[in-house]
């Protein structure tokens, strides 16, 4: 059980500031996902918690106590690495056991722990095998077991699913959610994949260029993005953004909030455009619609439109977003909100 | 088609010639070691002895304190290899994975040491050892080879290829640096270590120059000097006895080579787990 707090943390790599004066609190027992494009500093934060990449200044608190001077192995945290970082010369059992041995856990206790954990992750039959004889998914489980067996108060995971194939990844997502529910410990998970973030997180911390863009539960991140970056990072395809032509303001709407029809539609924002591409995905279909100089993506359950067809699209007022010229969201209570809304009618 | 056959057979002839030029000295050595004295001086030379003279080996062994020579050789070479490993592994780990002041200069010094022939340093070292009164011991043949610059270099390259995450994972597993070096890095570097051990073994087992300079009594002489002395012990050269001694000298190298060979190729191709 542990909460983590970053207080005025900065990190420099070769004089380049990667993280600048960052403050963040990670709640005890929550599944927190740090997400963002590569180079945004999310792994850097994770490594600070682990103690394998200390901050340049500021402090990292674990349960309110500064852990900056505590060795990685004594922090009560465990980490699963992207490339698993399994010790290749040790058997699966030795890999899982290594941390326990270093922590002077006695032999009987060790045997019990290793066996119960390997049972839980389905590795019992492989305890004597060398990692090189295991599949990617099994290695992933070894890395997970190695972290679990130490019964840490914090689980750190650095893109642990990125080396797995799509099917296995979907399965592991469910396994991790269940694992978190069962253990109830703090999980800090780093990924660049917004699907992983949305599906597993209690709280998403979305980062870009060393700054936190938004920190919120998945629903809020999706429905109430703070700025254009968040709006476009979450959701596939990303939110459509168009120039309003007033004060540098931009408007946006999600591809899936569009009503599309061959007949004119009743909506505060409508336009008629031409289908330029069509991607049939099974349950839904993606269309790219060209309108004047720009194009918008729409996601529709209707798959009967064809390329070059002219169609009408409409978006309801509660699905429309406005962003100021610096990219920040313009909320409904903004004094000019109605003006921008009216301007959009004439788009 | 015909032309192709000519080239192919030429290819084989060349290969056979190269093979023969390498193998022939060995064959001749083994053959001579089993001949009688008359056979060794006969013209044309004998290739297959009429009956193998195993007694030559006994003669070679009993012509001097051979057991002492062999014991010295074994002690010298194995001590050198053990000490080198103890020095080299932590040194290579530090050079590969740590950042510290003076790292570049120190590594430069390792490389200079790597290129420095023993002939440059033997006089000062001899004087130093004599000063310390160590000439009648095996120390002058072991101590100067404590560190192996080539080994540090090769092992550093090997360690550099081992992903940082494995070391970080070990740190998170509460492993001390000592444990990381000996329990994680060293087992992973087995192929490189086998290669270094073999090179080191061959060069010190076969070393003639250094012990020649550093010894003045039979008690501390290794096999190479003992065998060279077979030549001087009689007026004319007893090639069959000398060759028997040489066979004794070469056999351990072949055994060590056979033990190490499967690791050597791996040393240059790191096979980590992705």
Automatic annotation (TrEMBL), chain A:
Keywords: ATP-binding, Cell membrane, Membrane, Nucleotide-binding, Translocase, Transport. Transmembrane segments: none annotated. Residues 4-234 form the ABC transporter domain. One of its GO terms (molecular function) is ATP binding. CDD domains: ABC_MalK_N. It comes from the Bacteria. InterPro entries: AAA+_ATPase, ABC_transporter-like_ATP-bd, ABC_transporter-like_CS, ABC_transpr_MalK-like, ABC_transpr_MalK/UgpC-like, Mo/tungstate-bd_C_term_dom, NA-bd_OB-fold, P-loop_NTPase. PANTHER family: MALTODEXTRIN IMPORT ATP-BINDING PROTEIN MSMX (PTHR43875), TREHALOSE IMPORT ATP-BINDING PROTEIN SUGC (PTHR43875:SF15). This is ABC transporter ATP-binding protein.
């Amino acid at each position: 059980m542990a909460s983590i707090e970053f207080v005025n943390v900065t990190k420099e790599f070769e004089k380049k500031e990667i993280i600048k004066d960052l403050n963040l609190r990670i709640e005890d027992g929550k599944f927190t996902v740090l997400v963002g494009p590569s180079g945004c500093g999310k792994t850097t934060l994770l490594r600070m918690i682990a103690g394998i990449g200390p901050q340049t200044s500021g402090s990292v608190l674990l349960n309110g106590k500064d852990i900056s001077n505590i060795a990685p192995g004594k922090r009560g945290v465990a980490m699963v690495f992207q490339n698993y970082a399994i010790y290749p010369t040790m058997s699966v059992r030795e890999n899982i056991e290594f941390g326990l041995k270093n922590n002077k856990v006695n032999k009987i206790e060790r045997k019990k722990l290793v066996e119960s954990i390997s049972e839980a992750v389905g590795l019992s039959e492989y305890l004597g095998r060398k990692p090189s004889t295991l599949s990617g998914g099994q290695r992933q489980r070894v890395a997970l077991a190695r972290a679990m067996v130490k019964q840490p108060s914090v689980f750190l995971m650095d893109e642990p699913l990125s080396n797995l194939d799509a099917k296995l990844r979907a399965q592991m997502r469910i396994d991790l959610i269940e694992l978190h529910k069962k253990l109830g410990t703090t999980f800090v998970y780093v990924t660049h994949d917004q699907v992983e973030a949305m599906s597993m997180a209690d709280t998403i911390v979305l980062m870009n260029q060393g700054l936190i863009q938004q920190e919120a539960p998945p629903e809020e991140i999706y429905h109430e993005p703070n700025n254009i970056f968040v709006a476009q990072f979450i959701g596939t395809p990303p939110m459509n953004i168009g120039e309003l032509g007033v004060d540098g303001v931009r408007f946006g709407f999600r591809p899936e909030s569009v009503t599309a029809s061959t007949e004119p539609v009743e909506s505060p924002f409508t336009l008629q455009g031409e289908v330029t591409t069509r991607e049939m995905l099974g349950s839904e279909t993606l269309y790219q619609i060209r309108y004047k100089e720009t194009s918008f993506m729409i996601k529709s359950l209707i798959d009967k439109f064809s390329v070059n067809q002219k169609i009408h699209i409409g978006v309801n007022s509660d699905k429309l977003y406005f962003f100021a010229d610096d990219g920040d969201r313009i909320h409904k209570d903004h004094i000019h909100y109605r003006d921008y809304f009216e301007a959009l009618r004439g788009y | 088609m015909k032309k192709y056959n000519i080239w192919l057979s030429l290819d084989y002839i060349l290969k056979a010639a190269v093979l023969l030029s390498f193998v022939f000295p060995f064959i001749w050595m083994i053959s001579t070691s089993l001949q009688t004295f008359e056979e060794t001086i006969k013209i044309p030379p004998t290739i297959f002895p009429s009956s193998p003279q195993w007694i030559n080996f006994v003669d070679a062994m009993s012509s001097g304190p051979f057991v002492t020579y062999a014991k010295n050789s074994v002690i010298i070479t194995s001590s050198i290899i053990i000490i080198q490993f103890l020095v080299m592994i932590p040194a290579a780990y530090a050079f590969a994975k740590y950042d510290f002041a003076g790292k570049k200069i120190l590594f430069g010094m390792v490389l200079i040491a790597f290129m420095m022939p023993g002939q440059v340093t033997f006089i000062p070292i001899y004087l130093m050892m004599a000063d310390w009164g160590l000439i009648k011991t095996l120390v002058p043949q072991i101590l100067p080879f404590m560190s192996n610059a080539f080994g540090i270099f090769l092992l550093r390259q090997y360690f550099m290829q081992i992903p940082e995450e494995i070391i970080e994972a070990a740190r998170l597993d509460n492993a001390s640096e000592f444990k990381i070096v000996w329990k994680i890095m060293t087992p992973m570097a087995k192929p490189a270590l086998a290669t270094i051990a073999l090179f080191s073994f061959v060069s010190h087992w076969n070393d003639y120059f250094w012990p020649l300079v550093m010894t003045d009594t039979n008690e501390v002489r290794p096999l190479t000097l003992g065998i060279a002395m077979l030549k001087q012990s009689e007026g004319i050269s007893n090639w069959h006895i000398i060759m028997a001694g040489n066979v004794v000298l070469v056999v351990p190298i072949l055994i060590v080579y056979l033990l190490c060979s499967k690791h050597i190729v791996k040393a240059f191709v790191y096979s980590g787990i992705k």
